[in-house]
Write a structure and sequence with these properties.
single chain; about 35% helix; about 425 residues; 5-stranded antiparallel sheet; 8-stranded parallel barrel
């Protein structure tokens, strides 16, 4: 696999000839809407085992190996015609191996809303260990607001992907409710009713386990949440179900804020089978323009998390979307969500050049709308995905988790499957 950055004057035809990858495959693999209009700075995934390099004046094998981040020995093995490594000539064509050994295997979770299309689900399931269907909403009385999940569960099991029931403290009209969490976490009878309903759903729907995503829990309910998690695990493990939880992206144990304070990393790390770090939404709908999941900040969360939770239990969150902000930012204004392929299509349509922030490891671009207002777009591409996957590997994490898989992003799955084998649990 090669991740190629589009340069001025590039075309699908030229890239196809240079790398020996059929033009139609480049178009399909990168979900290119208009093959006649590549965007300068756009990342293209090229599925090839090798590329050809024409030796330039003054280039040595050492220099060429460095350009492609391989060793001289690898370069010599791919070019047995070289008899004297010290004597290569300008104009000589070398084969550059680009297929590297996989980094290992990992668990991959994908959150899906009930509205996911069957074709998108079918295309994505081969890359998933878990399919987490979002969400059953707990009521203050211990009831559950159901979702239409039968077809997705069936499809998941047919693809050897473990379906996970997701339990949230969301209101029917949307948004997480501190009050619902408070009612559930502090009333034993409500908990018993809720867990009875959860067990019934798990068994009747043929789920593999439960993911608890309680957010904006009052800080005073921290220990009550820990106790509820212990009670849930004690109830579900003997029945053969696993339990995972979703945790806010904390930088320290004592991080202040309603989103963070009740999420006890050490307790969840001890009790749950897996924890999902929600490492996204630095750039969010109602906030100022910034990367959604800047790698430098994601790493700060991971660095703390591995001190409190066994790394093999951690699934690091990755966003599958971007945002388009209108500038200047006004408090209360909303950014427009975009799919990652949709962001590139927008750049092509407005004639923008895609830039890449090295610190955040995130692509972005600016443009002006017809009304003369400036816009900034941050999104994910093959480069940012690779950086996040490699970060997960460096810290020895159990895997990654995507929010959400409702939009198919081909580059992501090509990069992931090139770097890792997906662990199957069924």
């Amino acid at each position: 696999m090669v991740i190629y950055r589009v340069r001025p004057g590039d075309s699908i035809y030229a890239v196809s000839r240079l790398y020996g990858v059929p033009a139609q495959r480049i178009i399909d693999d990168n979900q290119i809407a208009d093959p006649q209009q590549l965007v300068v700075g756009q990342a293209l995934v090229l599925m090839t085992d090798s590329v050809r390099h024409t030796v330039g004046s003054g280039q040595s094998l050492y220099i060429i190996a460095g350009l492609y981040q391989i060793t001289v020995d690898q370069l010599l093995a791919a070019n047995p015609q070289i008899t004297d490594p010290s004597r290569i000539q300008a104009g000589q064509v070398l084969t550059i191996p680009v297929t590297s050994q996989k980094l290992g295997s990992m668990l991959v979770n994908g959150y899906a809303l009930p509205t996911i299309s069957p074709p998108t689900l079918s295309r994505t399931l081969p890359y998933l260990s878990f399919l987490s269907l979002f969400s059953y909403q707990a009521t203050a009385e211990g009831g559950l607001t159901p979702i239409e999940d039968g077809a997705a569960i069936s499809a998941a099991r047919g693809a050897r992907t473990a379906p996970m029931m997701v339990l949230t403290n969301m209101r029917p009209q949307g948004g997480f409710s501190s009050e619902i969490a408070n009612a559930v976490l502090n009333d034993m009878q409500v908990q018993d009713t809720l867990l009875n309903n959860v067990v019934q759903t798990l068994q009747q729907k043929n789920y593999y386990g439960l993911n608890i995503d309680f957010e904006y829990v009052y800080s005073r309910d921290r220990e009550a949440y820990n106790s509820f998690l212990q009670k849930t695990v004690s109830r579900l493990h003997p029945l053969g179900f696993i339990v995972s939880t979703s945790l806010a992206p904390k930088l320290s144990a004592d991080q202040a804020g309603l989103l963070y304070e009740a999420h006890d990393y050490p307790a969840h790390g001890e009790l749950a089978d897996y924890v999902i770090l929600m490492t996204y939404e630095w750039g969010y709908t109602y906030g100022p323009a910034r990367p959604v999941a800047p790698l430098n900040l994601v790493e700060q969360v991971v660095r703390y998390a591995v001190t409190a939770i066994p790394p093999q239990k951690i699934l690091m969150g990755i966003p599958n979307y971007g945002y388009d902000w209108t500038l200047p930012f006004v408090q209360g204004s909303a950014a427009r969500p975009l799919t990652n392929p949709g962001a590139v299509e927008l750049a092509a349509r407005v004639g923008a050049r895609i830039l890449f922030d090295e610190e955040a490891q995130s692509p972005h671009f600016d443009y002006f709308s017809p009304d003369g207002r400036k816009h900034t777009v941050w999104f994910e591409d093959a480069r940012s995905i690779r950086a996040k996957l490699e970060l997960s590997h460096r810290y020895g994490l159990g895997g990654v988790s995507y929010w959400t898989i409702n939009s198919f992003f081909s580059q992501n799955w090509l990069v992931l499957s090139s770097l890792f084998d997906v662990t199957r649990l069924l």
